[in-house]
UniProtKB/TrEMBL annotation:
Enzyme Commission number: 2.7.1.50
Upper classification of the organism: Bacteria, Bacillati, Bacillota, Bacilli, Bacillales
Name used for this protein in its record: Hydroxyethylthiazole kinase
CDD domains tied to this protein: THZ_kinase
Species name: Lederbergia graminis
Positions bound to ATP: 120, 166
Length: 269
């Protein structure tokens, strides 16, 4: 598995897949740039008149709910249905679900109407999808003490997809297999968008392989490893600004060898 995942880095760079992202207005620019940094090509198109055209040329579709509206919802449904028909993988980032009641209704409706391949969110978001009560007040996770593996497993089985609960430790489950990734750094929680960017990375890898479990592991671990290396390069006088620049530098330079040297992963049996 480690060998095939490490080969995905080169594959993304060679294929330069198009990643259609219907996403939020807070982190949209960072998501576009991280997609470029890993070697894929982003296109952020939101309007219902445009999504049909755009998604039909795409190799993966991201639905990110960070700043939601009725129009965005309609665009997501339209793009999602076409992606399903064309066999394009869909990656959902249910930002803030559980914190905002109307958003929960919309996200559940998306999950009923479209086949989603991968869901990535923090503990609060995925716990809400698993049937828990919303614990977060905003987009950041509130720690419930609930078992992340159980949450990931339940979401994966409920929606027939791969579920990733990110956090201090990232849990990736397809409902049968559970993989734990220990990479990361607390600074990743101090700049907005590292979750959204992880989702964009996962989509970039999912666009070049049929093995979506491996794509999920590649995407989420890339952010964790990059966070560790970005923090390691900081001098005593540098903080979150330089950390973010370093993060982009590391993601640009990440290849299969660097990934294999940095990844801290094990599988639960
Ligand atoms: N306490 C932590 N320590 C180290 N890394 C973390 C921690 N919390 C989250 N991360 C990492 O930060 C990135 C974003 O995850 P997360 O904060 O859960 O997403 P979101 O921004 O959507 O809430 C992931 O790569 C995750 O591994
Ligand atoms: C702060 C904020 N508010 C609405 S979307 C958003 C960005 C959330 O990004 P992430 O989940 O990656 O931290
Ligand atoms: Mg998030």
């Amino acid at each position: 598995m480690l060998q095939t995942i490490s080969e995905l880095f080169e594959l993304v760079k060679v294929k330069n897949p198009l990643i259609h992202q219907i996403t939020n207005m807070v982190t949209i620019n960072d998501c576009a740039n991280v997609t470029l940094a890993i070697g894929a090509s982003p296109v952020m198109a939101h309007s219902p008149e445009e999504v049909e055209d755009v998604v039909s040329h795409a190799h993966a579709l991201v639905l990110n709910c960070g700043t939601f509206s009725e129009v965005t919802f309609q665009s997501m449904l339209k793009a999602g249905k076409i992606a399903n028909e064309l066999g394009i993988p869909i990656i959902l980032d249910p930002v803030g679900v559980g914190a905002i009641t109307s958003r929960e209704k919309y996200v559940k409706s998306i999950l009923e109407s479209i086949r989603i391949d991968i869901i990535r969110g923090n503990e609060s978001e995925l716990d809400c999808l698993a049937g828990g009560i919303g614990t977060s007040k905003g987009v950041d996770a509130i720690h419930t003490g609930r078992d992340h593996e159980a949450i990931a497993n339940k979401v994966a089985n409920m929606f027939g997809c791969i579920a990733i609960v990110s956090g201090e430790v990232d849990v990736v489950s397809n409902g049968e297999r559970t993989v734990i990734i220990k990479n990361g750094h607390p600074y990743l929680t101090k700049i907005t968008g590292t979750g959204c960017m992880s989702t964009a990375l996962i989509a970039s890898f999912a666009s070049v392989t049929k093995n979506l479990m491996e794509a999920s592991i590649a995407g989420i671990s890339t952010m964790g490893i990059a966070g560790e290396l970005a923090a390691k390069c900081l001098s005593d006088k540098e903080g979150l600004g330089t950390f973010k620049v370093n993060l982009f530098d590391v993601i640009t330079l990440m290849d299969g060898n660097m990934w294999r040297r940095g990844v801290d992963i094990f599988e639960e049996y």
